[in-house]
Specification:
By secondary structure, this protein is of the alpha/beta class. It is built from ten helices and eight strands. Strands 5-4-3-6-7-8 form a six-stranded parallel β-sheet, with helices on both faces. A two-stranded parallel sheet has the order 1-2. Helix 6 packs across helix 9 (204-222).
């Protein structure tokens, strides 16, 4: 059962000369789950900044993007509820949910119940090239999750120069610099989520600055080449 899995994985972690975690949040979970006393190396997930690039030239951007699994921990019902507030001020705004999962039918029913059928599009699973296009044409990337390790979607959006609005859970808070690359909001709070999105929508200069800051942060801190060098150094130290 699960207890046996924890015991077995604890033995593996304890025997390792080095332990790597992809975020401070994951490192803390390792300490709690396995009662780990040894040091943990933090080496973040990386992003291919040569593939996930901002769109060149001007482009009318007209939708809010979520990318990821359609599962309970992602907080998607909160995003749908937030759209009720947002669309009062931006009636032509669209929301795109890219991804698939067991919550899809429930989310579609919620959209229907709130009268938002013409506001939401369920794009399904997208391959890498399709996802790049969706990022590049998005106004804001939103991640309203209740728990994250270190979300790849935020790295990809940042690399594409897109402002992000995410919940202030541990993994998200390590990536989003509140007020500089996007906004952090409390989880399970559709109104605060809507307020943050509206602030970015209303201020073109803020959007541009956040997008530029996000791209610079992705290049300097999270590019895969940077992460690979850190992993190699960790291996060499063993």
């Amino acid at each position: 059962g699960s207890e046996m899995c924890i015991r077995d994985s604890r033995k593996i972690v304890e025997r390792g000369d080095k332990v790597i975690a992809v975020s401070q949040a994951c490192a803390q979970e390792l300490r709690e789950w396995y009662r780990l006393k040894k040091d943990i190396n933090i080496i973040y997930n990386g992003v291919d900044t040569r593939f996930f690039i901002p769109r060149s030239g001007s482009q009318d951007q007209a939708y809010i993007l979520y990318s990821g699994q359609l599962i309970s921990k992602k907080g998607l019902p909160d995003l749908i509820r937030s759209a009720s507030y947002i669309c009062r001020e931006y009636p032509d705004l669209k929301f795109i949910l890219a991804g698939d999962g067991p919550l899809k039918n429930k989310l579609m029913r919620q959209v229907n119940q709130l009268g938002l059928n013409n506001k939401f599009s369920f794009a399904g699973y997208l391959d890498r090239n399709e996802l790049l296009t969706y990022y590049q044409l998005a106004t804001i990337c939103v991640l309203p999750s209740y728990h994250e390790g270190l979300p790849t979607v935020l790295l990809e959006a940042m690399s594409c120069g897109i402002p992000t609005v995410a919940t202030s859970v541990a993994g998200n808070a390590e990536l989003v610099k509140d007020g500089e690359t996007g906004f952090l909001v409390p989880p399970k709070n559709p109104q605060k989520l809507a307020e943050a999105i509206l602030r970015i929508l209303a201020d073109e200069k803020l959007r541009q600055n956040m997008g530029r800051n996000a791209r610079e942060k992705a290049e300097h801190l999270y590019d895969w080449e940077v992460m690979i060098d850190k992993i190699v150094e960790c291996y060499k130290s063993v």
